[in-house]
Design brief:
It is globular and about 60 Å long. Helix 4 links the parallel strand 3 and strand 4. The chain has one domain: Decaprenyl diphosphate synthase-like (Undecaprenyl pyrophosphate synthetase, 3-Layer(aba) Sandwich). Strands 3-4-2-1-5-6 form a six-stranded parallel β-sheet, sandwiched between helices. The chain is built from eight helices and six strands. Helix 1 packs across helix 2, helix 3 runs parallel beside helix 4 and helix 5 packs across helix 6. It is an alpha/beta fold and 241 residues long. The longest helix is centred in the middle third of the chain and has 24 residues. Bound molecules: 3-methylbut-3-enyl trihydrogen diphosphate (2 copies) and magnesium ion. The site of one 3-methylbut-3-enyl trihydrogen diphosphate has 11 residues, from strand 2. Magnesium ion binds next to loops.
Length: 241
């Protein structure tokens, strides 16, 4: 049985497999992305019910610009449309939206949508949903290092951690990748140093409550040692008298 405060407090997800989900049904890839938005809405609700405080999802990588122009513009439209439709409900549900990524590469319409959604939901605190959009882990590290250098501050693990943490918050406890691939694809490279990794064979549009609970059960069965021995970890759990 997991302890009541056993977490995970922060879950990160690489929402992969939308295109294959659609191809399997002879649908255009964008139909898979649309269905993926529906899955995300459900997973946000499920995470809030499970008292997960932070959910960080990978929605568009800096490398995804290499996809066919039609798919890229379809994804931009999907984001703008989803924001226009969903923000008021997310606001009512207590979800705080934040976007992490390079906004300079995005259109004015998308940029405005992101800022409005952040502003609208800024006072919410039930669950923070970080959407990584036009995001790359290497970009984020370089960006934080450049900011420290500009301010003339020393670049150390602590200062870099602090500069980067302004993005997604505390390091994720659990990182789930759907779609059956076993790689990070440039997601949260700095923050996942001690994150538990879980790979689900389900395509993202098929990822449901039981798939999420399977990932959480596996997380609770893991022993997070952070470099220590198992005996040290077990001893540290015994309350001192
Ligand atoms: C993930 O699904 C969503 C994005 C990268 C935008 P994919 O589109 O990568 O789906 P597959 O991997 O091709 O099935
Ligand atoms: C990672 O998926 C990015 C997102 C889910 C947004 P990709 O489908 O782009 O990753 P690769 O190309 O298979 O590594
Ligand atoms: Mg993919």
């Amino acid at each position: 049985m997991p302890q009541p405060d056993a977490g995970p407090h922060h879950v990160a997800i690489v929402m992969d497999g939308n295109g294959r989900w659609a191809s399997k049904r002879f649908l255009p890839r964008i139909a898979g992305h649309k269905q993926g938005v529906e899955t995300l809405k459900k997973v946000v609700r499920l995470c809030a019910q499970r008292k997960i405080a932070v959910l960080t999802v990978f929605a568009f990588s800096s490398e995804n610009w290499s996809r066919p122009a039609e798919e890229v513009s379809g994804l931009m439209d999907l984001l703008a449309g989803a924001l226009a439709r969903e923000v008021s409900q997310l606001k009512r549900d207590g979800v705080r939206l934040r976007f992490v990524g390079d906004r300079s590469g995005l259109s004015d319409r998308v940029r405005t949508g992101l800022s409005l959604a952040e502003l609208e939901t800024a006072d919410n605190s039930l669950l923070t949903l970080n959407v990584c959009f036009n995001y790359g882990g290497r970009w984020e590290i370089a960006q934080a290092a450049a900011a420290l250098a500009t301010r003339g501050e020393p670049i150390t693990e602590t200062s870099l951690s602090q500069a980067i943490a302004l993005g997604v918050g505390p390091d994720p406890d659990l990182l789930i990748r759907t779609g059956g691939e076993f790689r990070l694809s440039n997601f949260l490279l700095w923050q996942s140093a001690y994150t538990e990794l879980y790979f689900s064979p389900a395509f993202w549009p098929d990822f449901d409550e039981s798939a999420l609970d399977q990932a959480l059960a596996e997380y609770h069965a893991r022993e997070r040692r952070f470099g220590k021995t198992s005996a040290q970890v077990v001893l540290s759990r015994i309350p001192s008298v």
